[in-house]
Design goal:
It comes from Methanolobus vulcani. InterPro entries: Asp_endopeptidase (IPR008503), Peptide_deformylase_sf (IPR036821). The chain is built from three helices and eleven strands. By secondary structure, the chain is α+β, with helices and mostly antiparallel strands.
Length: 177
């Protein structure tokens, strides 16, 4: 690793510690958010007295005239989340970090969760900034892929084994035009 890269990473980590420290929440609760920011995806963290999940919502701001755009990612960190509601059924292929292959699982199309606290990080790829704030709301609703991710992470917190039909149960079929 180049020394300038190492310096940039250390500086970023220092700013990260400072911003998360402003929320008076145990640092461990932010692990899912940090992973979402740095690696992507949704994550969960659980101890006997602390649970947190991160869920991403991704939007694209695209100008059809100039044919350019950028994404805006929101990472929602929920402290000690609980189910409020689930609606719909979607069958989808999903891979959990602990498994080697994807499986066919069932997820709700939309979910509503409540949490003790909700922190939102909005990443602007256009401005190269991460804006962090605490939501004044104690509930949040997700739909589509964000709901799938939230449901998956809630299963981890509930220590539910994520099971589904393995990929090798599918059959190939040639399609001829």
């Amino acid at each position: 690793m180049k020394i300038n890269d190492l310096k940039a990473i250390l500086k970023f980590s220092s700013r990260e510690e400072a911003i998360f420290g402003k929320f008076d929440i145990l640092r461990d609760a932010f692990y899912p958010m940090v992973l979402s920011l740095k690696v992507g995806g949704a994550w969960s963290y659980s101890t006997d007295d602390l649970k947190s999940i991160s869920v991403m919502k991704v939007f694209t701001d695209y100008d059809k005239e100039s044919k350019t755009g950028h994404t805006i990612e929101e990472v929602w960190m929920l402290l000690n989340p609980e189910w409020v509601s689930k609606e719909g059924i979607v069958h989808r292929l999903e891979k959990c970090g602990g498994k080697d292959e994807r499986s066919l699982v069932t997820r709700p199309y939309s979910v509503t969760l409540k949490a003790e606290r909700i922190i939102v990080a909005s990443i602007s790829t256009a401005k190269k900034k991460i804006y962090i704030k605490e939501s004044t709301e104690k509930t949040v609703s997700f739909s589509g892929p964000s709901a799938f991710y939230a449901a998956h992470e809630m299963e981890h917190l509930e220590h539910v084994e994520i099971e589904g039909l393995p990929m090798w149960a599918f059959e190939y079929e040639e399609v001829k035009d």
